[in-house]
Structure formats: structure tokens, C-alpha cells
Amino acid sequence: MPVQIGNITLPDFPLLLAPMEDVSDPPFRYVCKQNGADLMYSEFISSEGLIRNAIKSREKLDFHEYERPFGIQIFGGDEEAMGMCAAIVDSTNPDMVDINFGCPVKKVVCKGAGAAVLKDTALMIRLTEAVVKSTRLPVTVKTRLGWDDQSKNIEEVAERLQDAGIRALSIHGRTRSQLYKGEADWTLIAKVKNNPRIRIPIFGNGDIDSPEKALAYKNSYGIDGIMSGRAAIGYPWIFNEIKYFLQTRERKPPPSIEQRIDVIRQHLQGSVAWKKNILGILEMRRHYSNYLKGLPNIKEYRKKLVTLLTTEEINEVLDEILQEYTGFEFLKTEIKLVNYHEKCTA
Q1: In whole angstroms, what separates CA 322 from the centre of its chain?
Q2: Given this model, what pLDDT does residue 341 score?
Q3: Catalytic option among 85, 103, 110, 344
Q4: Could you report the per-residue pLDDT of 193-208, keeping only the tens digit for each?
């Protein structure tokens, strides 16, 4: 059955792209949308920064019509600021507003925002109510199981967030103390989903790095959909591969070298246009390794790609890679989840 978030209708068991700071920009979102992402979010936006009209915060509000349904994610620890921020977001007309209560990064937590709010449920509810009251859009939340192993209170939190007016909840199966270490615990996510009081969609997040795992978690934990983050970095095909496997129980052939190079070029072109040339080139560097994973003796080419400073030179190297590896058959994909501890993937 379709999944409903307020007036937004998503397909049965939708696949969501997690909001990731310094990763989930429009060029990255474009290649993910082209490859099967059903719902995407902006990079997270500081409520204080948006109120101060900070350029970087304002830029994150921009999105394209083809990205819909699309949510803008905000974070902060002050009720008034969060309400004002939500009103500004509302005026840009996305499809929903998402609140980040899960970012574990120290610079966010030290400001009393992100995962820091996990230590004060009453504050979390007040912040959520301030956002709900300030926007006509559906409000969703992304959070974690709790602050640490001694405070895994997600079952209570989910009920109270629903009562505060949110329309969907995404849960990362780790505590803030874990960051991205160890395995995500989906048993508590399942308890939230199976709580008879819970009426809103519950999305699971954490360690989904293969179509087989997506199916297993869907069947085992009963969640309404899956949110993928790190697995999509340099591998946007993960969304369509999961969809294909869910429908057929067979593995979709991995993308060919031609497909990989084509998507790299699309991503590079978009990044340069978005970030104004040199910054776009620099920010593409984190993606090459995963895009080209599985190619033998690719190290020297990767070294070139992360040192070149013009798109002409980069495209020449991409031409060389395409020529050398045409016909290469990739094995069954095994995606290595990269830990961006300094980035916020909540």
C-alpha cells in the first residue's frame, strides 16, 4: 500500500535518501533521484543561521521541481528560533519540514541541538510543537535510539512526537554515543513500528548496504520504508537495486563502466555548476572512490582525479578509464559504508 505523510503519497515501501551535511547537495540528489530515490531531503540547516540570513544556510533552501517530494531539514535548540526557521522554510514551498534530533557531531551537540536534544525529551517536544505550529507543511523527525545505552527512550519519544503533531519518523538504529560504530540495532525500531498507538509511518535507517539486507530488514522489522545515507555515496544505484530485488528476488546487474562514468560526469557537471567551478571540483573528490570501486589497478587513476583542478583534465582521465575498462564485468556489489564522523548523517 502507498505510504502517506500528510498530503504526500509515497509508493509502497519507499526508499529515502538521508540528509547528509556536505554530501546531500542538489548534484548528489539529482543522481540519486535518477536512480530510484523516492524521497530526499536538503542538507541540514541551522535555525539560527537561517534567521541571521547566513548565505550558506540560505543556499541549502534551493531545490528543483524534479526533486519532489522534497523535505528541508532544520536543527536547533531554541523554540522561538525553530518556529521562525520553520516559517521561512514554509515560504520556499517544499513538501515537508524535517527536524534533526539525531546529528551526533560535536559542534552541533555542543550547541544543544541535534542529538543533544535526546537528553531532554521535554525540550524535544517543545521544539517540535514550535515547528508544527509555524508551518502548514507536514513535519517529520529524524532521530536516534537515545543518547547512550542507558537512555534508549525511543519508544516513549515516538509516542510523544506523534502526539506533538509529526507525520512520520525516521529512526537511526544507534545511540549518539555510538556515532557510527558497531551494528545498528533495529529491534527497537521494530518495537516503535509495532506499537499499536503509533499511526504514522516509521522509517528505519542504519547499515542498509545491500538489497538482500533491505529485504531481510523489511520482513523482520515491519518498517514502512528504508532511509539510506552512506551506502549511496558514490553508489546511487543502491536505490534501484533494492527495488529490483524486492520485486524479483534477483540481483540487478551492477552498473557497467559506461554507466558509472556517465553518472560521474553528470555529478561533476552539476557540482561545478552548483558550487561555481573549483569548489565543485574539490567536493567531487570524496565520491570517486566509491564510483570506481571494484576496478582493478584503479589507484593511479583515482590519484589523478583527486589532484586535477579543471573539468577538462578530469574528463580526459575519465575517458582513459572508460577506454581501459570497457567490457570489464563488475562482480556482485558489496558496498562499504564510509564513516564520515565529521559529517552529520544523523
Answers
A1: 29
A2: 41
A3: 103
A4: 999 999 999 999 999 9
At the topology level, CATH places domain 257-325 in 1.10.1200
Segment 323-331 shows an average pLDDT of 89
Which of 3.40.50.300, 3.40.50.970, 3.20.20.70, 3.40.1190.20 is the CATH number of 3-248?
A: 3.20.20.70
For residues 289 and 139, the model is more confident at: 139
Does the pTM surpass 0.90? The reply is yes
**Residue 103: active-site member:** yes
**Rounded distance, CA 132 to CA 112, Å?**
20
Q: Is 243 left (phi over 0), alpha (psi -120 to 50) or beta?
A: alpha
- Give which of 221, 145, 237, 234 is closest to 182, Cα–Cα: 145
The dihedral over CA atoms of 189, 230, 35, 252, expressed in degrees to the nearest 10, equals -80
Enumerate the CATH 3.20.20.70 domain ranges in the chain, comma separated. 3-248
Asked if residue 338 has pLDDT above 70, the reply is: no
The boundaries of every CATH 1.10.1200 domain in the chain are 257-325
